Amino acid sequence: MTSLTSTQPRTAGPSVFAKMLKSPFWLRVGLIAIVVALLEYYGRFHADPAFMRPPSAVLDAFFTSIISEPKIIGALWLCVMEIAVAYAMAVVLGLLIGLVIGATNFSRAALFPIVLMLFAIPQVAFMPLVIMIFGLGPAAKIAFGFSHGIFPIIVNVVAGMRDVKDLHLRAARSMGATRFDTIRHVILPNMVPSLFTGLRLGMTLTLLGVILAELYVSTGGVGYYTRVFAENYNPAPLFALTLCLAIIAIVFNELVRIAENRLTPGKRNTSKPMAPKTQLSESGK
């Protein structure tokens, strides 16, 4: 008699290496590891030590010259506070100004070209004016970061309000919604994707503005130590300080991404696993 349950040969599944190649995370990690290995080889055997050091020397300088120096740590914390204050001001005022400009076709036609004109002007041209008004302290860095970050937020808020369908606005007005109710329940939910695009661009440009101001007007901040390391031909702590700025940028951008995933319609429940469906037993049918 032949067995009722015949065993079929199992096919070998994909290897661990093949799964890693299909994973965006591991592919990204692999590319970074390859780049770091190439930089390590070039920095050790071919590069001029006065201009470039290998990543191992940069990591050593990170612990010996950056983390162990209280003044540099204080300068980094001050830079973080300047970025946070400048970005918060850019978000609040950019959102308010964008809502005012995009409220009507008349205000958009009258004021939006002025915003685009100011956005197109290189902000570095305003650096002497910023120094004359705010001096050489943190206020100048905050103002310069604010001037960089506010314009992309205004532009994307106005663009998001313009993309709201007239049918939704007429339906809200026909049901007796006030202007505030229309903005809260119709305009803001529809402009969330465009708003967060502006918030991401604003975060990047705010960081750029604060760092540029640090390089120009800093007398004891991150820009000051950057100039000191560069003028002394000491690239290892210079790259380590640049690594700290990159970590700050990644943290701020991740915070914006988390807020986007929580507040954007359609993305709130994507990270939550779906509940498994209950299966009915075959008995009783």
The level 1 CATH classification is Mainly Alpha
Assign the structural class, choosing from mainly alpha, mainly beta, alpha/beta, alpha+beta, or little secondary structure.
mainly alpha
Distance between the termini: 31 Å
CATH superfamily: MetI-like
Strand residues, percent: under 5%
- Main sheet attributes: strand count, strand direction, barrel closure: none
Shape: globular
Number of helices: 11
Protein architecture, described:
This protein is mainly α. It has a single domain, classed as MetI-like fold, CATH 1.10.3720. It is built from eleven helices and no strands. It has helices at residues 16-22, 24-45, 55-66, 70-101, 105-120, 127-134, 138-162, 166-174, 179-217, 222-231, 235-263. It is globular, with a radius of gyration of 27 Å. Residues 273-285 have low confidence and may be disordered.
Topology:
Blueprint: H1 16-22, H2 24-45, H3 55-66, H4 70-101, H5 105-120, H6 127-134, H7 138-162, H8 166-174, H9 179-217, H10 222-231, H11 235-263
Helix pairs in contact: 3-11, 4-7, 4-9, 5-7, 6-7, 7-9, 8-9, 9-10, 9-11, 10-11
What are its keywords?
single chain; 285 residues; mainly alpha; MetI-like fold; 11 helices; globular; disordered C terminus
Concise synopsis of the structure shown:
With 285 residues, this protein is mainly alpha-helical. The protein contains eleven helices and no strands.
